[in-house]
Amino acid sequence: MEELFTTDFWTRIYENAIEWAVNDLPGMLILFVVTFLAFRMARFLLSRLKRIILKRTQRLDKNAAEESEKRINTLIGISRGAANISIWIIFFMVFLNKLGLNIAPLLASAGILGLAIGFGAQELVRDFISGFFMLLENQIRAGDVAIINGTAGLVEAIELRTTTLRDFSGVVHIFQNGKINSLSNMTKEWSAIVVEIGVAYKEDADVVMAIMKEVAEELEKDEEFGHKIKEEIEIFGIDKFLDSAVLFKARIKTFPIEQWGVAREYRRRIKRVFDERNIEIPFPHTTVYWGQEVNPLQVDVNKSAAEETSVAK
What we know:
The chain folds into four domains: 2-120, Helix Hairpins (Orthogonal Bundle); 140-185, SH3 type barrels; 191-276, Alpha-Beta Plaits (2-Layer Sandwich), CATH 3.30.70.100; 284-313, no CATH class. The strands form three sheets. It has a five-stranded antiparallel β-sheet with strand order 4-3-2-1-5. The chain has a three-stranded antiparallel β-sheet with strand order 6-8-7, covered by helices on one side. Strands 9-10-11 form a three-stranded antiparallel β-sheet, with no helix packed on it. The chain has helices at 7-23, 25-57, 62-98, 103-120, 122-136, 205-221, 259-276; strands spanning 145-148, 151-158, 162-166, 172-176, 183-185, 191-199, 234-241, 246-254, 285-289, 296-301, 307-311. By secondary structure, it is an alpha+beta fold.
């Protein structure tokens, strides 16, 4: 404590500070400037690379260009994160060296520690490997609608370790890439809607299929929905005989993520045309006969499971 009040102590502190400012401070400042420029340069180069690739994809058709843009955005995001981590690692290594610390033993210790962590973090390594192959094989991209382990939603982010999914209710689901057992991409290259329409047994099947085709052709010519449809409707005909209806099945191919809007509009128009032409869309009902009597008792079953009975005599 007595040394704090001596002139020699403060003289040594002053001389050491001057020596550090002359010898080490410029190197520190240069290190910070170079690190800052490295971050800016990495960001500029990746942005420039993204623009060049996107410019080339403009030569493709609209659907292919959108698919390529999703993949490019995902890969550029991963590359930006990897570049930032690399720059920070180099910065800390040089910074510690400037402080006079010998980083060689530190690197050797880090290698041994990394090996030990590798054995203990097999699950983490599995996540990274699975994420790498998901990106390499272009299984899903940010912006796709996918079903992961039974959960459907919009893919918001794909990292090497996790994949983030937001469902229709807005709930965010985060999956470890190594634990993704089932993956279904609903919007890759093209999508489709499968329409099942039930009509009464008394209706003419050929007339019903002609109406379905007619409505689809009108939808393809519509200014709002026509550009969303990729191919003409495929009418497969009668698919099933149900208790009170004949089931017709058809499919319309659309561009990615457009299938749900097209399906709702198609069903709305089908309902309107069926009503105009008196095509019956049956509802579930049960007919009960009393003995030899011809008069039936019909029970209408609605969604609330309430039953209404009427007996005509």
